[in-house]
Specification:
Elements: E1 4-5, H1 8-30, E2 35-41, H2 45-60, E3 64-70, H3 76-88, E4 94-97, H4 107-113, H5 125-133, H6 141-154, E5 161-165, H7 172-181, E6 185-189, H8 196-201, E7 205-208, E8 226-229, E9 233-235, E10 244-246, H9 251-257, E11 260-261, H10 268-288
Parallel strand pairs: 1-11, 2-3, 2-4, 5-6, 5-7, 7-8, 8-11
Antiparallel strand pairs: 9-10
Helix pairs in contact: 1-10, 2-10, 6-7, 6-10
Bound molecules: the ligand Nc1nc2c(c(=O)[nH]1)N[C@@H](CN(C=O)c1ccc(C(=O)N[C@@H](CCC(=O)O)C(=O)O)cc1)CN2.
The site of ligand LMY7XDAE has 18 residues, from α2, β4, α6 and α10.
Length: 296
């Protein structure tokens, strides 16, 4: 058996096209475009690429992009003052602080300073709490993107056994909450889980977000499982002289057993950016009482 490959690039492109259509309606109604401010501190190469992609996607959706690139030695106080200005700026509907931040800055303090109603990354504790109790808020873009891929692949998820590998605040925990809200039976596995392969073997849905290259093997999977790979691991150049990007799942062995699997690259990554654009439009719409399609 060979698994279907879940095409995150195509799903993200379709979502971004729908968003662009809604942005036209929003502009016609309100005379301005939704605006996203992205803040990058330092010059981490991967973060620089992601921030560039976010700015490009924002503009392609017809929205305003405000990029703030600050030197690596920017002080915490200065960053907090920028967040305060963005909170007060009516042209800014969404604020994103690119992670990771340099070590001398307390990331929790900065993320908590963002106005929760402009927190399009969904990292503010108030939004994490809203998700946990089923209130409207912002859901972190990567887990939201994973859920959209799962719904497109499996339709109704209720009653399915889901295993989320990884318990981070930005992926594992919100992913588990989203799956619970879909009425899945959810297990969160992590580095202390006993016999992880046995736990994963019971899952209809596996979301791997552990940050360990190709850790999940095909013989860990239940036949026909749906596998979502969140990992983005850069492997150093081998004898061919080229580095490569791999996920947390060993694609070669997993795709023989799974029913469907998202690849790396081209799976969850593009959905993360599409969901950021989506959350920014949702923020602008909420601030103006503008209605959007339920399923956006
Ligand atoms: N404030 C945030 N910081 C970070 C987030 C986030 O959601 N909010 N997530 C990650 C990085 N990230 C977005 O910022 C991100 C990572 C990867 C991709 C992506 O499209 N990846 C491509 C491959 C790209 C490549 O070749 O490197 C893919 O998977 O196809 C998009 C966004 C950490 N920081």
């Amino acid at each position: 058996m060979t698994a279907r490959v879940i095409d995150g690039k195509a799903t993200a492109a379709a979502l971004r096209e729908r968003i662009a259509g809604e942005v036209v309606r929003f502009r016609d109604a309100h005379g301005r475009a939704p605006g996203l401010a992205v803040v990058l501190v330092g010059d981490d190469p991967a973060s620089t690429v992601y921030v560039r992609s976010k700015g490009k996607a924002t503009l392609e959706a017809g929205m305003e992009s405000f990029e703030h690139k600050l030197p690596a030695d920017t002080g915490e106080k200065e960053l907090l003052e920028l967040v305060d200005r963005l909170n007060d700026d009516p042209a800014v509907d969404g604020i994103l602080i690119q992670l990771p931040l340099p070590r001398h800055i307390d990331a929790d303090k900065v993320l908590t300073r963002i106005d929760p109603d402009k927190d399009v990354d969904g990292f503010h504790p108030l939004n994490a709490g809203r998700l946990a109790v089923g209130l409207d808020g912002f859901v972190a873009c990567t887990p939201l993107g994973c859920l959209k891929l799962l719904r497109a692949e499996r339709g109704d998820l209720s009653g399915l056994n889901a295993v989320v590998i990884g318990r981070s605040n930005i992926v594992g925990k919100p992913m588990a909450q989203l799956l619970l809200a879909e009425s899945c039976t959810v297990t969160i596995a992590h580095s202390r889980t006993h016999d992880l392969p046995a736990v994963v073997r019971g899952a209809d849905i596996v979301v791997a977000a552990v940050g360990r290259p190709e850790m999940v093997k095909g013989d860990w999977l239940k036949p026909d499982a749906t596998v979502i790979d969140v990992g983005i691991n850069r492997i150093e150049a081998e004898e061919d002289g080229k580095g490569r990007l791999v996920g947390d799942v060993d694609f070669a062995s997993a795709s023989v057993v799974a029913g469907a699997i998202s690849p790396v690259p081209g799976g969850v990554g593009p959905m993360t950016i599409a969901c950021l654009i989506r959350n920014t439009l949702v923020s602008a719409a909420r601030r103006h009482g503008f209605s959007l399609p339920e399923d956006l």
